């Protein structure tokens, strides 16, 4: 009898030890991850017992919580929900959090370590604990212009605007979009019905076209080519080959210009004019004969093209040149095709780099975080993205070429009355029988840049100058007018 009893006792001890280990694992090792899990309903239920902080744009809350009479003491609401949804995300009792509601949850929910003292004081004084606020860098005028112009197209697309001197994000728009209010009600059945309708759409409106989706950029990539060529010793007035057709090295495939047009009558052209008319054959041959893969990739790094995602604090997908296996793929890469993929944020970073005299500043969305008493917890200091920069003279040369695009070339629809705009259009082929993607990236005023903007329309058809440039003009004009200029 003693032997079975000993075995049972040993088994009981082992179970007890396993329970202790599991509890310690959950409470110590996994506690932080579980607490931050956006789908952890238990944590969400606790959070609904205190007032969540606001997300604020130019002094106006765009996400805030109001008291209710039900067991969930507060209801999350979104002002201009569809317009700001790509930034705020949602706060849902069923689906947890997304967007800034997720990435800034500690401050908004009041669980941030810096708010512990304030929460203890509230507890002893009988006041309900509250969350802190998040003040954004967004411009209400730029955001509204981007959202309205993009929505009017009825197309899938995205817009990003930056302050090139600081990296502050002025606008993030994505279409199709959704109303986060429908996911933040206290009725789980209504929430699931709304989510089901979103999931049935293609693409899902919750996908952020400006930040997390990437696409071939087409000719806006020629900004990178130009930087690499000038750094290699080429002048913008130097004559370079501009054939009507360019045979890709090692193949029987020929590359043509848009609509098969000739860039020049002599098949020789300046870098300035080839950039202005977006000559594909010029830049493809230039990449193979003079630039080379190493210099092209080095130039790309300066603009932030490094395959890696980053956070601002929302996650931005990486942009890439892809694999370049031979000279033929190098030529295709140089015109923003083959395996090149950009987010709209990356497209804005191209112009922001040139606008800031060749130095790219890291994009950021949160200007400051506040405690419930409105005291500042943290404030974002601008910083450089990466370590490399272009010489100021190179940035000025590219600025001159981008001005020529808007004044004389394919970007004339980006013109703004009384303001000199610098920009570059892009039209990216997708596949046979599928409409092209269209792009525009630029900045203004050209002599004292205040805003850099990128616009993308998925399968928009036409050209970047026709589809995307006018939206950029709207955003630039609205922002500059809001600042007292334009």
TrEMBL record:
The organism's superkingdom is given as: Bacteria
- Domain Penicillin-binding protein transpeptidase per the UniProt entry, residue ranges: 157-476
- InterPro entries hit by this protein: Beta-lactam/transpept (IPR050515), Beta-lactam/transpept-like (IPR012338), PBP_dimer_sf (IPR036138), PBPA_dimer (IPR054120), PCN-bd_Tpept (IPR001460)
Q: Which residues form the signal peptide?
A: none
Pfam name, any one = Transpeptidase
Indicate the segments forming the Penicillin binding protein A dimerisation domain, all copies.
52-134
Q: Which Gene3D superfamilies match?
A: DD-peptidase/beta-lactamase superfamily, Penicillin-binding protein 2a (Domain 2)
MF terms (GO), sorted A to Z: penicillin binding; peptidoglycan L,D-transpeptidase activity
Q: Which GO terms describe its cellular component?
A: plasma membrane
GO BP, one example? cell wall organization
PANTHER family in alphabetical order:
PENICILLIN-BINDING PROTEIN 4B (PTHR30627:SF24), PEPTIDOGLYCAN D,D-TRANSPEPTIDASE (PTHR30627)
Q: Which named protein is this?
A: Penicillin-binding protein 2
